[in-house]
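Quarterly update, task 2.4: L263DTV3-bound model.
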Amino acid sequence: MTNQNVVVSDAKSGIGLALFSSAVAKPPAAAAQGGGFVAIPRKKPLKKLETGGGAARISAWVDSMRASSPTRKPLSESEDQIKSSWILHHPSALTMFEQIINASSGKQIVMFLDYDGTLSPIVEDPDRAFMTKEMRKAVSDVAQYFPTAIVTGRCRAKVYNFVKLSQLYYAGSHGMDIKGPAKDSNNSEVNANANANLNDNQGLSFQPAREFLPMIDKVYKVLLEKTKSTPGAKVENNKFCLSVHYRCVDEESWNALAEQVKTVLNDYPKLKLTQGRKVLEIRPTIKWDKGKALEFLLESLGYANSDDVFPVYIGDDRTDEDAFKVLRDRGQGFGILVSKVPKETNASYSLQEPSEVMHFLRRLVEWKKSLLHGH
Ligand SMILES: O=P(O)(O)OC[C@H]1O[C@H](O[C@H]2O[C@H](CO)[C@@H](O)[C@H](O)[C@H]2O)[C@H](O)[C@@H](O)[C@@H]1O
């Protein structure tokens, strides 16, 4: 049986195209250097994979699962060249800070932050992906000056327990569970601008996949049962979506695990399978993702058709590409990919790891303070 709902990587995000199309806006460094886009050897197919038999299919799946979160090893000379070329086209957001600030001149910066791998380092146990108190302070300071949202694949309540900042917007379950700060939150700039989708007492609230809750709960239980024989596998209930983690599973068992998950999904054609960093993600097939969540939040903040907004989205995962693509297509703001290795991306800039994200957030705050206080 063929499951048409298995997506190895979101082809709709057009990631591959971004690297080779001259129609795509180039980041300033690339434009200044007059360079073309760099070709990165593709480790994963950017198209739907069918679940019919065949060794090629198995190998494609395992390749894709491996590429989702590559292990660090010293680079060969050619890999080193690829990296240098990639950096030229996705320069560091820290190095390019002044240019970024200049581009935002006269516009309202709105910050969108992914959680895992962006605000917290990737760790083996998803329940222990804590952010540092320094990072929390940096995010809190940023939210004082700019509307700020956390956009994550995680369950909203769980990410709130990690972040613990009430003045932020939260878009959990890949944007399918959106909540704004309560109206008495101390961020007056955010509240003054918000004009849509408001629930009077609670602030903003939006859950486009509510009808899927019973189905997700059912599939969660089935997956718990089916995967318990695979040592290291972990199923996480993210409310409107599910994660099957394989970071701690022996690589030899990855394909069997993926097959188990796909077999379960054959009975649920309204759910689809996508991939994150060493995680298989089960989501409703509705047309909603982090990119849609970003657009929804901009609209809710009163910036639907505004030229006066400068959204900045920072993320490390394939699922963040939907948001990077929205920004690229709108020609507004930009995406920053958090990665130490070259990856196909619609982001314009890069940062290497969460500590650099923290420095970038701090610099934004320092810049805004100096602007307001004139020093
Ligand atoms: O959108 P995000 O905030 O990046 O969430 C995506 C997934 O993040 C979590 O998994 C990832 O981080 C874990 C902790 O570092 C790591 O163990 C795992 O391998 C990563 O995939 C979260 O647990 C998932 O539910 C999210 O879907």
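Highlight for this quarter: The first helix runs from residue 15 to 20.
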